[in-house]
Amino acid sequence: MGPLSAQVEGVLFFIACPEKSIHDYPVLAFYLCAMGRILGIDYGMKRTGLSVTDPLQIIAQGLETKATASVLAWIIDYVAKEGVEAIVVGYPFLEGAWGDRKFKDKLDTFIADLKKALPTVPLHLHDERYTSIQAREIMARSGLKKSQREDKALLDRTSAIVILQEYLGHI
Q1: Rounded distance, CA 81 to CA 88, Å?
Q2: Which of 19, 30, 67, 170 is the most exposed place for a label (fewest CB within 10 A)?
Q3: Mean local confidence (pLDDT), 51-68
Q4: 37, 53 contact by CB (below 8 A)
Q5: Residue 79 vs residues 1, 37, 57, 119, 133: alpha-carbon distances, Å
Q6: How far apart are CA 68 and CA 22, in angstroms?
């Protein structure tokens, strides 16, 4: 039985036994209340896709797509309001030379600014190679119309979900 099944069983137990309170089980209450959301980021030159987990870190869902110029301020505000436990940034770990040096410099600057602005929030880099391709496949299989599949903001948000979901599978 892994951590996911333990979390789900705990939730089901409290649904099935409404006469019990989570406070009747202090260890479980601490475990469930101590968890926070994880924020996923698919950084782009123009737009940045954002995703987030539920507080139990079971489900990743799309959150927003923001203009990259204003995304840092938005993230700082969101982290302050929502109790974010960690941040995962998609990072293209490429073998050999980078294709777009300007993008790498901008991404590295964003990561440094994020670490400086939120020094107590752990920041993890996760390989984002092929996430746009996976996001396009997900959108195509979901039955979206062609015009909806061409929405770049939705593609960026879906890529952020893929990054976060893959990260959750590795922790």
Answers
A1: 18
A2: 19
A3: 90
A4: yes
A5: 32, 9, 15, 12, 29
A6: 41
Neighbours of 18 (CB within 10 A): 7
Give the helix/strand (H/E) hosting 38: strand 37-42
Q: In what order do the strands lie in the sheet with 47-53?
A: 60-67, 47-53, 37-42, 84-91, 123-127
User: 156 - beta bridge partners?
Assistant: none
In three-state secondary structure terms, 48 is strand
Q: What is the pLDDT of residues 3-29, one digit of tens each?
A: 444 444 444 444 444 455 545 555 554
Helix, strand counts (H, E) of the chain: 7, 5
Interstrand relation of 37-42 and 47-53 (parallel, antiparallel or unpaired): antiparallel
H or E element, residue 123: strand 123-127
Q: Looking at beta carbons, which pairs linking 103-111 to residues 24 or more positions away fall under 8 Å?
A: 103/45, 106/45, 107/43, 110/43, 110/68, 110/72
HSE, CB side, 13 Å, CA atoms: give it for residue 84: 24
